[in-house]
Amino acid sequence: MSRQSRRLLFAWNRKCLEEALIDDGLASLGDSYINFVYSLALSNRRMKPEGTKVKGSILAEALRRAGLREYLPSRMSRHALADAAEALIVYAWLKDCLTINECVSILGKVDDPVVCLTRLLVAAKERITFP
Predict the structure, then answer these.
(1) Please, are residues 121 and 88 in contact by the beta-carbon 8 Å criterion?
(2) What global pTM score does this model have?
(3) What is the CATH number of the domain that holds 25?
(4) Which of 31, 32, 7 is CA-nearest to residue 94?
(5) Alpha carbon distance 65, 50 (integer Å)
(6) Do 119 and 106 contact (CB within 8 A), yes or no?
């Protein structure tokens, strides 16, 4: 088994989009991943190192605009919606559907964080396949 395969073992057991969206472990990892790639995109745009945290309200709105809200239970907090967005984006990276460079590129194209995160979520949704 290759190192790449061992690194991703925990990511392979999601059977559908809904499972990936509600996975708390993926959401936790996704929180760090989103902040990292978004900070890289800002650094590229501003031409200087920049570290930032993406607000949950921005992620929740991007999830809605990406048409992913319908895959989740009707009663969910904004925080839970943000977690779902983080989970899906990091799952796409773990499944090799999106690279870090692609994420940074998508996030760096537009100044509006909701718009660029919506585009990233749409790309993730379109590229991930489930068994």
Answers:
(1) yes
(2) 0.90
(3) 1.10.1520.20
(4) 7
(5) 26
(6) yes
Comparing CA positions, the residue from 1, 36, 14, 2 lying closest to residue 91 is: 14
| Tokens linked to 36 | 């990292």
The CB density around residue 105, as the number of other CB atoms within 10 Å, is 16
Predicted confidence (pLDDT) per residue in 48-104, tens digit: 999 999 999 999 999 999 999 999 999 999 999 999 999 999 999 988 899 999 999
Q: For the chain, how many structural domains are there in total?
A: 1
Q: Is residue 36 part of a domain?
A: yes
Helices (H), the chain: 3-8, 17-21, 24-46, 56-65, 78-94, 100-108, 113-127
Structural domain span for residue 108: 14-127
Does 5 map to a domain? no
